[in-house]
Amino acid sequence: MDKEKALMEHLGDLRKVIIYSGLFFIICFAIFIIFIQQMIPLITKSQKLTMLGPLDVIRFYTGVAGSLSLGVSAPYIGFLIWRFIQPALTDKESKNAIKYIPAMLLSFICGLSFGYFVVFPFAYHFLMSLGTDNFEMMITTQSYFSFLLMTTIPMGFLFEVPFVLMFLTAIELVTPNHLSSFRKYAYVVMAIVSAIITPPDFVSQLIVLFPLFILYEIGIVLSKFVIQNKERKELAEEQVPQV
């Protein structure tokens, strides 16, 4: 009976997480829909885009509002998930998780900014210039928005790599030595990822690939910092005289 009661309580908590997450997403979605006309010039960057039908307007607006709502909701949803799984975590894992969430959010925003201001403009104008010599280029809003998402959202997640490595080091799942020995394999994986998320031109892939290499190296440095900080704390505790 106790196990059955505990299971029902966990299911109730999970239901609350789903309901609160859904409500927060809906509220954000409604706000973005209300102000969608003001945001469109920022997203399209004054590009001349083509709509192929009346339903394309709805798809474009809902796609923009949905993507932005998901991005804004992610930190709150992550916090709810952390509260839900907190009883199953050790004190160390719980403290480290809540400590690194703000840093990961900031790095995600930096990644989005890098994709929006660097990767997307370069790749978009480069590919457009390839076609304007022989063709009259007409870009649909759906194609434009899909390309924008492809070159920004993945960059947001990839920029979280250093803090993910710090968190894994803090909970003792990896060490700096492990990360250093895994470097060549990590570089191969990042090369594959950059080839997938960028257009099929070598220059765009290099623009994404080099920052990924740098981010991985930063992750190793931060991992070493976590270990050194932990060792200093342990040494300080040992030097405290016992009463």
Write the layout of secondary structure elements.
Blueprint: H1 2-34, H2 36-44, E1 49-50, H3 54-85, H4 91-132, E2 139-140, H5 141-158, H6 161-170, H7 176-181, H8 183-197, H9 202-239
Parallel strand pairs: 1-2
Helix pairs in contact: 1-3, 3-4, 4-5, 4-6, 6-9, 8-9
- Report how far the terminal alpha carbons are from each other: 46 Å
Give me the side-by-side strand order of the main sheet. Answer: 1-2
- Gross morphology is flat
Radius of gyration equals 23 Å
Q: Helix content range of the residues, please?
A: over 70%
Structural class from helices and strands?
mainly alpha
Describe the model:
This protein has 243 residues and is mostly helical. 84% of the residues lie in helices and 2% in strands. The chain contains nine helices and two strands. The protein has helices spanning 2-34, 36-44, 54-85, 91-132, 141-158, 161-170, 176-181, 183-197, 202-239, and strands at 49-50, 139-140. Strands 1-2 form a two-stranded parallel sheet. α3 runs antiparallel to α4 (91-132). The longest helix is centred in the middle third of the chain and has 42 residues, at 91-132. The chain is flat. It starts with a helix and ends with a helix. The mean pLDDT is 81.
Question: Which features would summarize this protein structure in a list?
Answer:
single chain; two-stranded parallel ribbon; about 240 residues; about 0% strand
